[in-house]
Specification:
Layout lengths: L8 H18 L1 H19 L4 H31 L5 H29 L1
Helix pairs in contact: 2-3, 3-4
Length: about 120
Amino acid sequence: MNNKPKYHLFNNTKYALSGLKHVLKTESSFKIELFCSIFIIIGIIFIDISLTSKLILLISGILVLIVELINSAIENVVDLVTKEIHPLAKNAKDIGSTAVMFSIILHIICWIIVLI
């Protein structure tokens, strides 16, 4: 007996878009990072660097958004489990924030290396 739901491309896409819609409504950090990424992408298009360098900047920028989404998911799960201020709940949220910070630092380092 396998109770795992079957993979369905359209349903999974619908779930993903629902998650994106929720994040855009509720997560200000993601909205700010997404807004900044518009200008970053424009900069990547117009800066005179190799295609490889452009791809490195683009991928590291997208990584920031992906890590922010994972951090938001962690925060939602923690909030589901407890509304109390618990050391483990705080640690989970703080570690997720640290992952976002590291991805942003990585993106900045990539820009510095490419521009130098």
